[in-house]
Design a protein that fits this description.
Elements: H1 16-25, H2 29-42, E1 46-48, H3 86-90, E2 103-104, H4 108-112, H5 122-130, H6 137-147, H7 160-171, H8 177-188, H9 200-209, H10 218-227, H11 229-234, H12 237-244, H13 248-259, E3 281-286, E4 289-295, E5 302-304, H14 306-317, H15 324-364, H16 366-371, H17 381-388, H18 392-399, E6 403-406, E7 409-412, E8 420-422, E9 428-430, H19 431-444, H20 453-462, H21 469-478, H22 484-487
Parallel strand pairs: 2-4, 3-6
Antiparallel strand pairs: 1-5, 3-4, 6-7, 8-9
Helix pairs in contact: 1-15, 5-6, 6-7, 6-8, 9-10, 10-13, 14-15, 15-17, 17-18, 20-21
Organism: Rubrivirga litoralis
Family: Belongs to the sigma-54 factor family.
Protein name: RNA polymerase factor sigma-54
């Protein structure tokens, strides 16, 4: 039996232009540059360049219906295919929503011409070193398979059996696990020493093995890793001394030697990837205030190609009834023209929104930009959203992945957001300030008797920051500081 029901609901649907604006808003500078290049390639009516009479569109935007609107409104098309309001299109105001972008083009050309450094991956270096060894052809194939199986952190986590199977299957060779182990042992002793180890213990033992016997503490360090590895990871020093029969001095010598080794040789360099941070904003001191500049790559000069505008005017002056080709051309031009208009408007609104967010951040964090670290105020996304009268999600998209150049360095915008903690004096401070104090206390503690989380909480309370032990634990973990037991070190009397 069919049952018909009538329901009333409220839905908000985004227009294609609004979706485009949202996607552009969350892009960082370099990603935006790539997105603009893709749009220029796909839309022949859109081009980048200097001003060209009245056709300049770098600051073109749609007239807003409400100064507080966050998203561009969908454009209404002309009722007639032969009409297109060029005056409205080309002479739209450049201060959309009351903001006009301050753009910094000063270093743009230098940035575009920045040469990439000549680098080579560790994998290439290892293959070059293998070529200098007395390997036969089969051993070189095994070594190449091993090098190709190393993870980004420099470890070999594939079983020897899998490497054996790959070599036999790909090259039709009959080899044994002993052959792979022998080649692997030679590869592990290439530069960087310890590369292609299967676990941390093996990595450290390989580095000790290539050291000369004259290195102080080497023999005890090898025994420490081979026979007392579990006790070593737990820092049970008394148990290690009893098992190895060594005194505290010999234990410290061996322990310090192990600590000097590289736990992850080749980490970060195995797959070459050079990342440069390109600031989206620059905040400069200007008399008693600050001046906010937007990176020039966020404000490209875009315009409509003159040739296509003339083509449109010519076709509009002609009678196209019955001429299918002319009508098809006009439809194409109109579609691409509307697309160009939407894109330019979205770019304009993106940079205006970004400036509004950055100005609000500077307004709240004025002391930081004036004096630097140690003067951050508690601030959340909602604080910015209330100032600029936009949704929190919009602020989040602006903040995510964006950077600002200040007098004190380059910071991610997320750096300025933190929760607040009320001190004994009733003043609210940033939890980042509390974390800095916690880090200082841990750095000054007695390494032979590290402080527990409860003791850290008591010391923070003495400095005017009454926070719970569980909060101290959370902050300690966020700082990457291990528990007290693992911070313990051997301190000789």
């Amino acid at each position: 039996m069919l049952n018909l029901q009538q329901k009333q609901g409220l839905q908000q649907k985004l227009s294609p232009q609004q979706i485009q604006y949202i996607k552009l808003l969350q892009l960082p500078t370099l990603a935006l540059e790539q997105r603009i290049k893709a749009e220029l390639e796909s839309n022949p009516l859109l081009e980048e360049g200097e001003e060209e009479d009245e056709l300049q569109l770098d600051n073109t935007a749609d007239e807003p219906t409400d100064s507080d609107d966050e998203l561009p409104s969908e454009q209404t098309e002309s009722s007639s295919d032969d009409e297109f309001d060029w005056d409205e299109f080309l002479n739209a105001p450049d201060d959309l929503y009351g903001y006009k972008a301050q753009v910094d083009h000063s270093a743009e050309e230098d940035d575009r011409e920045m040469p990439m450094p000549a680098t080579s991956s560790i994998a290439e270096s290892l293959r070059d070193q293998v070529g200098l060894l007395d390997f036969d052809e089969t051993e070189e194939l095994i070594a190449d398979q091993i090098i190709g199986s190393i993870d980004e952190d420099g470890y070999l986590r594939r079983p020897v059996e899998s490497i054996l199977d790959d070599v036999m299957f790909n090259y039709g060779l009959v080899i044994t696990e002993d052959d792979v182990e022998r080649v692997l042992s030679r590869v592990q002793r290439l530069d960087p020493v310890g590369i292609a180890a299967r676990d941390l213990r093996e990595c450290l033992l390989v580095q000790l093995d290539v050291m000369g016997d004259e290195v102080d503490g080497r023999e005890n360090a090898v025994d420490l890793l081979r026979d007392c590895y579990k006790q070593f990871t737990m820092k049970h020093f008394d148990a290690i001394q009893r098992k190895l029969g060594i005194d505290e001095y010999d234990l410290k010598e061996a322990y310090d030697l192990v600590r000097s080794l590289d736990p992850k040789p080749g980490e970060g360099d195995f797959a070459v990837q050079t990342n440069y941070i390109t600031p989206d904003f620059t905040v400069e001191r200007d008399a008693d205030d600050f001046r906010i500049l937007l990176n020039g790559r966020n404000a490209p000069e875009l315009r409509v190609n003159r040739h296509y505008r003339n083509m449109w005017n010519t076709l509009s002056a002609q009678t196209t009834k019955g001429d299918g080709n002319a009508k098809e051309t006009k439809d194409f031009l109109k579609t691409r023209m509307e697309s160009a208009r939407w894109f330019i408007s979205s770019i304009q609104q993106r940079r205006n929104t970004m400036l509004r967010v950055m100005e609000a951040i500077v307004q709240i964090q004025h002391d930081f930009f004036e004096h630097g670290e140690g003067h951050l105020k508690p601030m959340i996304l909602k604080d910015i959203a209330e100032i600029i009268k936009m949704d929190i999600s919009t602020v989040s998209r602006v903040v995510n992945g964006k950077y600002v150049q200040t007098e004190y360095g380059v910071y991610e915008l997320k750096h300025f957001f933190s929760e607040g903690i009320t001190g004994d004096d009733g003043e609210e401070v940033s939890n980042k300030e509390v974390k800095a104090i916690l880090e200082r206390i841990v750095g000054e503690e007695d390494k032979a008797k590290p402080l527990s989380d409860q003791k850290l909480a008591d010391l923070l309370k003495d400095e005017g920051y009454p926070i719970a032990r569980r909060t101290v634990t959370k902050y300690r973990e966020q700082l990457g500081v291990p528990v007290a037991r693992l911070r313990r070190q051997i301190v000789l009397a």
